[in-house]
Amino acid sequence: MIHPKESPCTSGTGRKFATRVVRTVSGTDARTGASSVPIYQASTFHHASLENPPEYDYTRSGNPTRQALEDTIAQLEGGARGFAFSSGMAAISTAFMLLSNGDHVICSEDVYGGTYRLLTTILGRMGIETTFVDATDLDRLEAARRPNTRAVFLETPSNPTLKITDIAAVAEWARKHGLLTMLDNTFMTPCLQRPIELGIDIVVHSATKFLGGHSDVLAGLAVVSNERLGHKLKHLQNGLGSVLGVQDSWLLMRGMKTLLARMECAERSARQLAEWLTRQRSVTRVYYPGLPEHPGRAIHERQSQGYGAIVSFDVGSGERARKVLEHVTLPLVAVSLGAVESILSYPAMMSHAAMPREIRLQRGIGDGLLRYSVGLEALEDILGDLEQALQAAR
Ligand SMILES: Cc1ncc(COP(=O)(O)O)c(C=O)c1O
């Protein structure tokens, strides 16, 4: 049950999200009626007349295949303009280039490790400082605000402890203080959460995950809420050259056609996996916004249409976590998430390896924490496999 309430996804064309996700992504080729957008495998375009240059002149600046993807994600997120990048980190780092030397950022504390690395080791060197805070607490955000604060970067649910931030409340606070708001919507996708409708300025995605959905393409997307920001981000995308190639743009659209069906199936299993994990003696804690005891559940239900397909759980120690990883036979033991196949990750040594251990522990990312990205396999097989791995780890 992915849409517990009638979602605002009927906005725009008036069609339901399920219809829009298929019809928007599929589109048809205006010239031939082909059922998928052609791959315009060209780096440059002929100028029939210098006075009337063609709509597209060079693929870094624009390409019809990439444009179809960018229009699609803008529509699905309910934004003014979309942009496709060579990776999620390319989308995030390009968005941060809206800032300048001397600016200050406030960021969710248990943000994706790559974003942490960008902010601390790259942007820090360029004079952009960051304060990491528990963004679930508005008072802490306010306490972190400085005269030079320019932007707030959020992840909700956060990675990997699935903390929930009240998007509309933070967006309103940020607007009052003239701060740019950015939100990483990778875990939810526009199927489940549309932050721009809640007041966020820029939504970013690692489209490598649920949007692509098949562990076969690396890509990033960004959507802006208004044309003014769109103009600035276009300038940066072209200037930095961090664009997505045309074949990957097509492949990503191919994956996105089945986004809702995949999310529905994976989420159904994730809910049951989370409940099942709470009953396992060897599991000390389960993190999933759909569990009744999750502190952010009510806020999450207000701002989202589902709980997602990521379940994190703690098995008590690094040694036990390693044993579980050695004994599972069904999920890929890998970095990444959001694919048709289940993926089990060990944040301490994978997604959050860039975070120093003491900071990682402070942020609740313990040595025994595992992150399960639920795929489309039969739930019985997922549970059976995990049961034997947990037993082996006792
Ligand atoms: C939440 C989140 N944001 C951003 C990224 C970075 O995306 P990419 O690996 O496509 O660069 C990841 C990658 O794991 C992620 O999980």
Structural write-up:
This protein has about 400 residues and is an alpha/beta fold. Helix content is about 35%, strand content about 15%. The protein has helices spanning about 15-25, 65-75, 90-95, 115-125, 140-145, 165-175, 190, 225-240, 245-255, 260-280, 295-305, 320-325, 355-360, 380-390, and strands at about 80-85, 105-110, 130-135, 150-155, 180-185, 200-205, 220-225, 285, 310-315, 330-335, 345, 370-375. The strands form two sheets. It has a seven-stranded mixed β-sheet with strand order 1-7-6-5-4-2-3, with helices on both faces. A five-stranded mixed β-sheet has the order 8-9-12-11-10. Helix 3 (about 90-95) packs across helix 4 and helix 12 (about 320-325) packs across helix 14. The longest helix is centred in the last third of the chain and has 20 residues, at about 260-280. Bound molecules: pyridoxal-5'-phosphate. Pyridoxal-5'-phosphate binds near residues 112, 336 and 351. The site of pyridoxal-5'-phosphate (PLP) has 14 residues, from helix 3.
